[in-house]
């Protein structure tokens, strides 16, 4: 099962490699991992998308908690939550493709943020499936480059991950 | 007071009441060695290889309740230390390792003797630090000691660049430390403890299984009290030996791969299993799916939540300090009237005694050739069971664990988790320095001892009269045993050729060497080592039966009850 794990970690050098090292050393999956400082610059927030049986997910959260620099861990996918991912796609846009791409972007509520006479850069945020769907809607031959941020997640309503 | 970083390091060690630092100098730690030279409170033990420095500090820690400290230089000093660090990590031993690093400005430049020590050791430490500012040294070392000895203990490494050890700043040792990201649980959940006690009272076939956690938490007294109060059978793992007195009736011997028939059968067929500071290791429970075939309720007490329900599903998890939890269980039992059902427990004991009646530890002694089990038994007799015994890894380790009966904790020092050959002599060195008035013996094999044989020199310099009992079978015995049983007797590279004359080798280092060839000379030689040569290091080189195997045995991948009891079962 797919899980989204959020954690707060001391913003120390090496903290990221402790987390990624834990996943590789114990053979856990990482589908994506995002990290950046929070409003409190001494702490970073990480979102890890992983998958595994209940036993494995239990071990993952326990092992993460065991890391000395980890302040708090929650599996936000255990309850209502929101996931977003940012994607930038550079698409070859010439001739009649220009209009077609623009239309597709509008349908997906994507924005064209860079234009040359031969290409667009399209920015799109949403959950993973929306991003996948957009890629699916564009002729693969036209895609020059894609970059995705990985998932950021947050619990809905009262569920707050804070110190 | 304004001090250099190096002076601060030493002052911190003084503040932590460190008696001994085990180490080896080099370029990156020259300032620290200079500061060490100019004081007397912290004594330095110069080993002959950094691996031994870490093992010796580890042995010091295991035989006491203190944190072991090692000091090594950058690059090769640090990489040589890695095996020692990993060994301590696997057995949760509290240690602080201080390593030198190239100057801050040189980091990342492929400088002479530069390695990413923090990176290399990250997976085998509880935590590590690179100190980039002299003003952080004191707080970092304070944290290192705090982390090493609290919660589930473990080694903590502090990497200090050379320039940082040379810079100056005001020194003040922090009195308190608090870390928002680190708050180990101490007290167990009282509701869970109540549930556990209830289960134990209702048990029909109860069994207590305890590990290294009992020793580390200094909870042997509480464990003994609870076990006697309940009247249940008990087993201690390889790491937990001495947690409960081995000479007591309720004790069934060690469980696991080379455990006793009665301990394994009782583990397997129990209806309530109380696990204390133990982690259901693969060497202890055999194949997990086979272990799970018999229904039983499991209570698991451990300081580390990630050890609970890792390999075996647990019914009543209790996270907390083993000592505190056991005390609470005793309190609850003593304050109530309820006691275990005497008929049920008596019936269970009848079954357990029947299993014990198989006498699985019996072996055929000989007048012609020395049997290793006999040597260990004689060592136990001569030392009255009062020695600190260290071992290396192999058959001799198992014979030591099986035939030396440990009645007290912190008397048995071995590498259980990592299984590191070469720990035996350094462990004995650390233990002897920590316990100068106790007899210390190292039971080893001719292969293991050669992994750190250079330490005979350290033992000479620091006058460490340890007794080395080399069970010399001229084989990598444990490897040979597996090859005999599971690889069609193809003895690939398990024969130790061109062995030195160990007695002469010991003499060359300035010690006493005794070679023993006949069973009738075994006891006399051991006595001589502990009396005539009380103050000497004695290397007893026992020429033992080359083909003796360790039994009972549960093959890897087999169930706990599928035991080979002796050669006749093959
Ligand atoms: C550093 C290291 N290398 C290899 C091994 C694998 N190993 C386990 S036991 C053993 C043989 C040990 O031989 P010896 O010390 O003579 O003891 P014996 O088994 O003969 O009693 C070996 C090679 C190990 N445990 N540690």
UniProtKB/TrEMBL annotation, chain A:
GO terms for molecular function: acetolactate synthase activity; acetolactate synthase regulator activity. It is an enzyme of class 2 (transferase). Its EC number is 2.2.1.6. It catalyses: 2 pyruvate + H(+) = (2S)-2-acetolactate + CO2. GO terms for biological process: isoleucine biosynthetic process; L-valine biosynthetic process. Keywords: Amino-acid biosynthesis, Branched-chain amino acid biosynthesis, Transferase. Residues 4-78 form the ACT domain. InterPro entries: Acetalactate_synth_ssu (IPR004789), Acetolactate_synth/TF_NikR_C (IPR027271), Acetolactate_synth_ssu_C (IPR019455), ACT-like_dom_sf (IPR045865), ACT_dom (IPR002912), AHAS_ACT (IPR039557), AHAS_small-like_ACT (IPR054480). SUPFAM superfamilies: ACT-like. GO terms for cellular component: cytosol. Pathway: Amino-acid biosynthesis; L-valine biosynthesis; L-valine from pyruvate: step 1/4; Amino-acid biosynthesis; L-isoleucine biosynthesis; L-isoleucine from 2-oxobutanoate: step 1/4. Catalyzes the conversion of 2 pyruvate molecules into acetolactate in the first common step of the biosynthetic pathway of the branched-amino acids such as leucine, isoleucine, and valine. Dimer of large and small chains. PANTHER family: ACETOLACTATE SYNTHASE SMALL SUBUNIT (PTHR30239), ACETOLACTATE SYNTHASE SMALL SUBUNIT 1, CHLOROPLASTIC (PTHR30239:SF0). Belongs to the acetolactate synthase small subunit family. This is Acetolactate synthase small subunit. It comes from Thauera propionica. The lineage of its organism: Bacteria, Pseudomonadati, Pseudomonadota, Betaproteobacteria, Rhodocyclales.
